[in-house]
Amino acid sequence: MYLKINPKKITSAELALIVKSLLRGEVIVYPTDTIYGIGCLATNTKAIQKIKAIKKRDPNKPLLILVSSLYMAKKYCFISKKQELILKELWSGHRPTSIILKHRNLLSKELIPKQEGIAVRLPKSDFLRKMIRTAGTPIVSTSFNISGEAVWNQVALLADKKLSKSDPDLVIDGGELNNKASKIIDLTSDTIKIIRN
Question: Following DSSP, what letter does each residue of 129-184 receive, concatenated?
């Protein structure tokens, strides 16, 4: 299914349709605050496996999640008082920033095979925060592309494509995006490590 939206003026009907798709365990392509992403509920192992198959991604490579609030991040990750202060500062800044934190093992193990840390981002987009808050669960976010190939900044070409079972279930077109990938910082130890600037 293909859905054209204005992310800055998302309607309640559009939001309900998107969240219903996620709750059904479907895989969606959607505009993030960086580039077009492909995702699903972070608790749905089967949907995560489908994402890895679509991207032809190394199954052992971890995936990032988006949360709707710091409160949601604390529910799924261990966050100290010091880390909370750092998160508030970084997530209030202009640049979208993903933070690697130690997780509580409450999400699908397909996200983070053999790793104690998971990358988490609080998106700048009101649309994304509403979507995640309404779904009630973090959302998987990884670039919409075959691993190693160019990322997508628009999806209008998919408007007339008949989607098969091996494709995403829902493509959400939010127009052309001209952003770059998020900054990544590792906070799993006492030392702050910049993974991607």
Answer: HHHHHHHTS-EEEEESS-TTSPPPS--GGGTTPPP-TTS-SEEEE-------PPEE
pTM: 0.91
Q: Which two tokens stand for residue 34?
A: 């960086």
Ordered by where they begin, the domains of the chain are 2-196 (3.90.870.10)
Structure tokens at 44: 């749905």
Q: Rounded to whole angstroms, what are the CA distances from 148 to 4, 16, 101, 144?
A: 27, 33, 25, 11
103 φ/ψ angles, rounded to the nearest 5 degrees: -95, 165
pLDDT tens per residue across span 39-80? 999 999 999 999 999 988 888 888 999 999 999 999 999 999
Tokens 């309900």, located at residue: 16
Direct distance between the N- and C-terminal alpha carbons of the chain, in angstroms, rounded to an integer: 35
For residue 105, give the amino acid letter: N
